[in-house]
Amino acid sequence: MAVLVTGAAGFIGFHVSRALLTRGAPVIGLDNVNDYYSVQLKRDRIASLAAASPNGFHFLEVDFSDSGALNTALGGHEIDSIVHLGAQAGVRYSIENPLSYVQSNLVGHVNLLEVARHRKVRHMVYASSSSVYGGNEVLPFRVEDRVDHPLSLYAATKKADELMSETYAHLYRLPQTGLRFFTVYGPWGRPDMAMWLFTKAIFANEPINVFGEGNMRRDFTYIDDIVAGVIASLDNPPPDDGAEKAGGSKAPHRLYNIGNNNSEELTRMIRLIEEACGREARKNLLPMQPGDVRDTYADISAIQRDLGFQPSTSIDVGIPRFVEWYRAYHGV
């Protein structure tokens, strides 16, 4: 039976789908291909997956926040497990378009929980976010920390997803793993992320907007390391044994941070992009934006202990790889 991957036209969903196909697992990729960012980029990702595995990859263009359309699209497909990566992403966009986050991230998450429950899937892995840590000031962020003070609606929806998943794990003993991703980057990345925006501006000889006056730190995590963590999680459903899991649940539900376990200065990231582009950036230093946090830093001890996860790609290696892909994709 197949693995259902939502958000298959998205950055992480594309890479996870490709990894699953590479190891011979049939994948049903699902995405509504919305225009939050370049539809062409999303189409190119799907085309790449279909070309790599024409018999193993089946794509469904559907909005999973529409339960009727979702169930109709999945009719006749057998599903062993779910990797739910689809969502309305972006901290800043949630301030301008809150209802799209409610529909996709809340209603959509419940719809996938219902699919998982009624089909009795082996395991549902879903995307949370480091944004849930919000105003927390103690670094590194641990899955044991309280996350009751989100700074954006996006963060609040991801926290709500974790709570709803806990309820389904408790009521229906549905095995689930929630993954709090930390600043994911790499080839085929998202055009709304800083690394893409900076690279694009540098090649166009335009200034870059550096928020927080450049005084910010992020736990940048290369996409290959993220995929390794997702696959390891998928392969290891939490047991329903009454023991306390990572994140505190006694139901079959775990929460993990997936980061590089190394908080880097934003200015260092910019220097590495400049070196890879062979040009210096002109910088507009701007104040923090609403909803942003100053620093992120992942404590990954839980996923290291349980699954042996170990990130292996530093930004010194990952950023040049991204810039190399960007140049090839755009012909610059």
What is the structure about, briefly put?
Helices cover about 40% and strands about 15% of the residues. The chain is of the alpha/beta class and about 325 residues long. The protein has a 7-stranded parallel β-sheet, sandwiched between helices.
**Low-confidence parts, pLDDT < 50 over ≥5 residues?**
none
Q: What is the count of β-strands?
A: 13
Would you tell me the structural class of the helices and strands? alpha/beta
- As for the CATH topology, it is Rossmann fold
Q: How do the strands line up in the largest sheet?
A: 3-2-1-4-5-6-11
What does this structure look like?
This protein is an alpha/beta fold and 332 residues long. It has a single domain, classed as Rossmann fold. 41% of the residues lie in helices and 16% in strands. The chain has eleven helices and 13 strands. Strands 3-2-1-4-5-6-11 form a seven-stranded parallel β-sheet, sandwiched between helices. The protein has a two-stranded parallel ribbon with strand order 7-10. Strands 8-13 form a two-stranded parallel ribbon.
Structural key phrases:
332 residues; alpha/beta; Rossmann fold; 16% strand; globular
How do the helices and strands line up, and which of them pair or pack?
Blueprint: E1 2-6, H1 11-22, E2 27-31, H2 39-52, E3 57-61, H3 67-74, E4 79-84, H4 93-96, H5 98-119, E5 124-129, H6 153-172, E6 176-181, E7 184-185, H7 194-203, E8 208-210, E9 217-218, E10 221-222, H8 223-234, E11 253-258, E12 264-265, H9 266-277, E13 283-285, H10 301-307, H11 315-330
